[in-house]
């Protein structure tokens, strides 16, 4: 009798386990279908004011990305989506710089200051996010090298490439670049690079909170000197 009872309990537990597995898999598939079917343009009625405000800010960009860039998951559309994304980044960058110049001219702020404070901070957000992600995974060397490498790429590729294209199209050199404070900026850039490497070396190549405070202080010094040497009369 005991063997029969144990056999019945075993069969019943097996049936219950199989039913639970099926229900879990069905729930996962339903949740996946809901996520795929969820419209990114749907207004967050049940969200807070913060989420609704962010929806109003991101809705124009979402419309552009959804209807003007093909789905990279479709066959043969990955490269098309990649190059169209780069093209839209160029369009947004052009208007970002244009609007920054207009705001600076309206408020009496030089273009150099707008570039150092606002444009530099805005374009560095992707570097900040990528550095945070890799640092959280314990890849501190990748976080630091990514930040330094992106700035080197900007200086050695991001600046000369549009100048070269301008010279090739217009057949004349670029003469609208103001370089009155360029030697000082380059000198400070080299000094900050040496200071950052020295700080990391003094802390045994380990990222502590104190390193963040030191780098914040160095950025404050750089920003203060740049604002102090800027020509505010040309605004």
Helix content: over 70%
Biggest β-sheet strands, sense, barrel: none
What does the radius of gyration come to? 27 Å
Sheet-strand content, in percent, reads under 5%
What form results from the Cα inertia axes? globular
Poorly predicted regions: 30-37
Secondary-structure element string = HHHHHHHHH
Record field, number of beta strands: 0
First-to-last CA distance: 97 Å
Subcellular location: Membrane
Keywords: Antiport, Calcium, Calcium transport, Ion transport, Membrane, Potassium, Potassium transport, Signal, Sodium, Sodium transport, Symport, Transmembrane, Transmembrane helix, Transport
Family: Belongs to the Ca(2+):cation antiporter (CaCA) (TC 2.A.19) family. SLC24A subfamily.
Protein name: Sodium/calcium exchanger membrane region domain-containing protein
Describe the structure.
- The protein has 235 residues and is an all-alpha fold.
- The chain has a domain at 178-234.
- 78% of the residues lie in helices and 0% in strands.
- It is built from nine helices and no strands.
- Helix 3 (78-107) runs antiparallel to helix 4 (111-123), helix 5 (125-136) packs antiparallel against helix 6 and helix 8 (182-202) packs antiparallel against helix 9 (209-229).
- It is globular.
- Residues 30-37 have low confidence and may be disordered.
């Amino acid at each position: 009798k005991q063997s029969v009872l144990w056999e019945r309990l075993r069969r019943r537990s097996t049936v219950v386990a199989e039913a639970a597995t099926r229900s879990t898999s069905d729930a996962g598939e339903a949740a996946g279908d809901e996520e795929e079917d969820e419209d990114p343009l749907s207004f967050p009625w049940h969200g807070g004011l913060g989420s609704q405000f962010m929806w109003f800010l991101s809705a124009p960009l979402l419309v552009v990305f959804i209807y003007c860039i093909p789905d990279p998951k479709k066959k043969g559309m990955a490269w098309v989506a990649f190059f169209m994304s780069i093209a839209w980044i160029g369009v947004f960058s052009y208007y970002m710089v244009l609007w920054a110049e207009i705001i600076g001219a309206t408020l009496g702020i030089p273009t150099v200051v707008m570039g150092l404070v606002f444009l530099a901070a805005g374009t560095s957000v992707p570097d900040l996010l990528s550095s945070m992600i890799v640092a959280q995974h314990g890849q501190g060397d990748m976080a630091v090298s990514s930040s330094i490498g992106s700035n080197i790429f900007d200086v050695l590729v991001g600046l000369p490439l549009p100048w070269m294209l301008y010279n090739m199209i217009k057949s004349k050199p670029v003469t609208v670049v103001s370089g009155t404070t360029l030697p000082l900026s380059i000198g400070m850039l080299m000094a900050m690079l040496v200071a950052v490497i020295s700080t990391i070396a003094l802390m045994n190549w380990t990222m502590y909170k104190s390193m963040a405070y030191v780098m914040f202080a160095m950025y404050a010094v750089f920003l203060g000197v740049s604002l102090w040497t800027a020509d505010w009369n040309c605004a």
